[in-house]
């Protein structure tokens, strides 16, 4: 065991080096690439038209300066620094338009040619933010230019903790200066707006994802960070001496909160728990916001310089460390991409800090905001990619589930088919049993009677009647086997013909009444044995009218009724005979054969789930058979 532990201790450092060293080398390459890119992307201004020699009057003192040049930080616009210089103008006869081009300045400028103001950047609030690096260009009216020397003056309006800065001023043909201005505008105005627009769209997407998946707060945290970034990008600060909104000042100073939210989203994105002491990361931003709400400007700007910028840098270093740890533990593409994005932003932040502290005096170009938006977009893209991958996994699982459900459905269908075949076989066997019993009870009894009559030497008439009864019973069984599709009216139609033939020799008239258009309801569950029981009940009613009632008319009424619970059929057989007496139990009194016939009718009705009612008196007998709404599948419950 000790040898295994020793080997494990040796393997772990090697694994750590194998994972972290390539990652660190990649980050070093990224740092060099960013620095090289910043140098290559720095616009090249037309030096042929540079005006850099000025005299500066500041605080009552005039001295010569060479641009670019820094001035002291100020919180008052009274007596701004004034740069005065000259440029040469030579008319070429072609009416060429000249312009003044200012690549960089902090915070606002006012440019005058020969004593006439042609540019005041304070009219454009977006041009007065140091982090924007917004260039300005203004065309000089031809009436102001004179051959030879011309005066140019630049007032530099400075507000805030940063020192004022004025880069080299360029004066020359507009065609020669416009290209440099458009390049700077593309890099420092248009591109940040595009990034911020992407950021706002991604913020909406992430907010929707968070609303749909509340158990994953990483989407909501990152959406909140992106919203703050978009607000800082699009909200224009008030330009002094205009009244300053405290809310605008607070929102423009919310970068520390945004950085803390980015760290929180990275921790949650990597699947780790946010520590309790992590709330301390938001304290500097809260202090900056509280200072802005309580005191107003310029306190938020001062607090931002003292607390906000160091907090942003600390958060970036923390992000790089979190990403490096994630790469060591997980070794996945998302962690590497997150760490690379943090390295890019951290490098740009270091570049900006060197400019702020004038370690690079001629590089007052801030790129942190631009790279910060790129970091947010990179993290949002990573989250969206993870969400899309999760959706793909869900779709794959759903596809597998659908395949398994189809397999289960196929097995169930096969099982159902087997059960259905088994049920059909059982139903067929039951039908055979019932038919055999009906044949035994009906046809069998008739044949035994014929044999008995033959053995006794009875007359041919008795044997003939018995044979006809047997034939009638056989026809009944055969007719009941016809496929009537649940329509009992078809079976009753055949029975009507047989009943009419039975009544005709006795001069008894058959009256047939169907009171409803549909006759009887359809019953898909109707079986042949149901038909046999119903027809035999009707046969018994007609036979009783012929043999015992001395009737002259038999009326059959068929109707469909509905008492609110569903339709049901009713068949009535009434005669105008003498009737018979009923006992207290509702059975026929006296004649044992009639009583036995009534018991058989009631038994057959119960087997079908029907209700049999009998009314008899001096005016005749009426048998009323109320059919069920649904015929039973089995008669095993018959008492």
Automatic annotation (TrEMBL):
Keywords: Kinase, Membrane, Transferase, Transmembrane, Transmembrane helix, Two-component regulatory system. InterPro entries: HATPase_C_sf (IPR036890), HATPase_dom (IPR003594), Sensor_HK_TwoCompSys (IPR050482). SMART domains: HATPase_c (SM00387). Residues 529-631 form the Histidine kinase/HSP90-like ATPase domain. The keyword Transferase applies. The chain crosses the membrane at residues 20-41, 186-212, 218-235, 247-271, 277-295, 302-327, 333-350, 370-388. Signal peptide: none annotated. One of its GO terms (molecular function) is kinase activity. Gene3D superfamilies: 1.20.5.1930, Histidine kinase-like ATPase, C-terminal domain (3.30.565.10). Pfam families: HATPase_c. The keyword Transferase applies. This is Histidine kinase. It comes from Bradyrhizobium campsiandrae. The lineage of its organism: Bacteria, Pseudomonadati, Pseudomonadota, Alphaproteobacteria, Hyphomicrobiales.
């Amino acid at each position: 065991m000790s040898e295994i532990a020793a080997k494990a201790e040796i393997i772990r450092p090697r694994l750590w080096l194998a994972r972290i060293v390539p990652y660190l080398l990649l980050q070093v390459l990224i740092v060099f690439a960013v620095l090289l890119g910043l140098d290559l992307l720095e616009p090249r201004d037309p030096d042929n038209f540079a005006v850099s020699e000025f005299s500066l009057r500041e605080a009552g003192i005039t001295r010569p300066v060479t641009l670019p040049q820094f001035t002291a930080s100020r919180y008052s616009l009274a007596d701004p620094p004034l740069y005065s210089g000259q440029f040469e103008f030579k008319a070429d006869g072609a009416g060429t338009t000249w312009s003044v081009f200012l690549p960089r300045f902090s915070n606002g400028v006012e440019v005058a040619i020969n004593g006439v103001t042609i540019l005041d950047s304070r009219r454009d609030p977006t041009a007065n933010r140091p982090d924007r690096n917004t260039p300005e260009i203004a065309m000089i009216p031809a009436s102001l230019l004179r051959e030879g020397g011309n005066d140019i003056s630049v007032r530099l309006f400075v507000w805030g903790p940063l020192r004022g800065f004025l880069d080299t001023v360029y004066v020359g043909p507009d065609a020669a200066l416009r290209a440099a201005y458009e390049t700077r505008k593309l890099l420092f105005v248009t591109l940040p707006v595009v990034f911020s627009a992407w950021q706002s769209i991604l913020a909406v997407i992430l907010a929707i994802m968070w609303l749909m998946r509340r158990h994953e707060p990483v989407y909501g945290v990152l959406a909140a960070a992106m919203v703050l970034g978009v607000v800082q990008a699009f909200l224009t600060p008030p330009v002094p001496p205009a009244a300053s909104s405290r809310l605008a000042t607070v929102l423009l100073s919310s970068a520390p909160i945004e950085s803390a939210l980015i760290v929180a989203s990275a921790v949650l994105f990597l699947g780790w728990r946010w520590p309790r002491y992590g709330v301390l990361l938001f304290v500097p931003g809260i202090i900056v916001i509280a200072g802005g709400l309580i005191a107003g400007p310029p306190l938020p700007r001062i607090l931002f310089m003292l607390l906000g910028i160091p907090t942003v840098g600390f958060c970036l270093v923390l992000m790089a460390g979190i990403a490096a740890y994630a790469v060591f533990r997980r070794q996945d593409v998302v962690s590497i991409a997150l760490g690379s994005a943090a390295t890019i932003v951290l490098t740009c932040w270091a570049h900006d800090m060197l400019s702020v502290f004038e370690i690079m005096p001629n590089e007052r170009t801030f790129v942190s905001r631009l790279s910060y938006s790129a970091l947010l977009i990179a993290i949002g893209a990573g989250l969206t990619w993870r969400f899309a991958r999760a959706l793909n996994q869900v779709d794959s699982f759903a596809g597998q589930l659908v395949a398994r459900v189809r397999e289960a459905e196929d097995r169930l269908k096969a099982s159902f088919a087997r059960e259905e075949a088994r049920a059909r076989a059982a139903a067929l066997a039951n039908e055979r049993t019932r038919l055999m019993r009906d044949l035994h009870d009906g046809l069998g009894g008739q044949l035994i009677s014929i044999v008995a009559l033959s053995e006794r030497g009875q007359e041919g008439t008795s044997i003939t009647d018995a044979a006809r009864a047997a034939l009638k019973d056989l026809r009944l069984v055969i007719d009941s086997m016809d496929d009537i599709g649940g329509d009992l009216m078809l079976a009753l139609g055949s029975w009507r013909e047989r009943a009419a033939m039975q009544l005709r020799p006795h001069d008894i008239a058959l009256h047939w009444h169907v009171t409803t258009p549909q006759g009887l309801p359809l019953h898909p569950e109707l079986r042949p044995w149901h038909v046999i029981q119903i027809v035999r009940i009707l046969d018994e009613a007609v036979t009783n009218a012929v043999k015992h009632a001395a009737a002259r008319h038999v009326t059959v009424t068929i109707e469909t009724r509905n008492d609110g619970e569903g339709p049901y059929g009713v068949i009535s057989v009434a005669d105008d005979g003498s009737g018979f007496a009923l006992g207290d139990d509702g059975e026929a009194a006296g004649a044992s054969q009639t009583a036995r016939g009534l018991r058989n009718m009631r038994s057959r009705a119960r087997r079908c789930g029907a209700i049999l009612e009998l009314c008899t008196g001096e005016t005749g007998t009426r048998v009323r058979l109320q059919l069920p709404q649904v015929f039973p599948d089995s008669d095993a419950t018959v008492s």
